[in-house]
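Running this now, will post back.
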Amino acid sequence: MRKSIFVPAALGLAAFVFLAAVLSGTALAQTAPAQRAEILILGTYHMANPGRDIFNMAADDVLTPKRQAEIGELLEVLKRFKPTKIAIESTVYEDRRPKQYAEYLAGTYTLSQNEIEQVGFRLAKELGMKAIYPVDIDGDFPMQRVINFAKAKGQSQIMDQIMSEIGEMVKQEDAYLHSHSVLETLLYMNDDKKVAQSVGFYFREARLGDPGDYAGPDLLASWYQRNIRIYNNIAKIIESPNDRVLVIYGAGHLGWLRQMVTNDQAVRLRKLSEFVRAQGSGLTPGKAPQYRMPREDSL
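Update: finished.
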């Protein structure tokens, strides 16, 4: 009987297609980006006016109905990040804040003006979270040594100029707060240019030093050390590549913590501005922008 040549050819083609599909799937598996935990650093002003920084904003009362409504607006935006954990600027060595949060859930604790509670506690409760995570660690901040170095080297005018500019920046932020909503103010403070400006002051101070007395570089190193320790504490609470950690911290830490998240290839940085889109000319002091929520499929 004469055998057909088409049956083996068809089988060969099927085998080729199968092999190509397997190899293609393997290649896709190798090139597809791995799921990474996400971290959103929310740089804030200190709503309770603790006065612990060299320069401090004069925040108004966030317990007024107007500000409470504005914080509610902020929380709705943050919910779009879909956080699974919330980290706060409270010492990692104490359980005071976790206990207060547990009491808040039980209805036995009244929230203070502090942003940890007004943003962190409220959002965590609304999202059904059972815990909140302190990640702060204190550190040295040898500013006086830099001032002394500048004075000894006849460079006090350099330090005076830096401090003057920092004071002016805080005044502008204060004025912005008093004419804008909480959300608008935080978008303004979390803007990339504002963050770069804040980080830049440290590098200008780092120039004040010489062999034998690296006063400015040591100040920067001390600040970096504190922030990398904070970041270590943040990273430790990540348990899954599906985690989405919201970090609520004073804005002075924002640029440094963002830098650390960006440089850590195990995680992905997210920003507040991704979840609120500005229409028009953008964020301009004295002129409140109009916002619209981004589409769900764009996040």
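The first strand starts at residue 37 and ends at 44. More later if anyone needs it.
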